[in-house]
Design brief:
- Helices cover 84% and strands 0% of the residues.
- With 67 residues, it is mainly α.
- The longest helix has 24 residues.
- The protein starts with a helix and ends with a helix.
- This is DUF4244 domain-containing protein.
- It comes from [Mycobacterium] wendilense.
């Protein structure tokens, strides 16, 4: 009887030590936060004055060709 209890306790401890079921959730959370931060940085760069001015200049030059 005692041996059975010890084996069960050992099996449960082994599962607790080696169980990584929560790791994927944490990895997804970190990935989501990193993607949101990258999106925010990209948005601030693209909507900045220099980028908007450069894109406007390129479009104006393409539309105002002498041909």
């Amino acid at each position: 009887m005692m041996d059975k209890l010890l084996l069960r306790a050992r099996a449960r401890l082994t599962v607790l030590v080696y169980d990584e079921s929560g790791m994927s959730t944490v990895e997804y959370a970190i990935g989501t936060v990193a993607a949101a931060a990258f999106g925010a940085i990209l948005y601030s760069v693209v909507t900045g004055d220099s980028i908007v001015g450069a894109l406007t200049n390129i479009i104006n030059r393409a539309l105002n060709t002498g041909a």
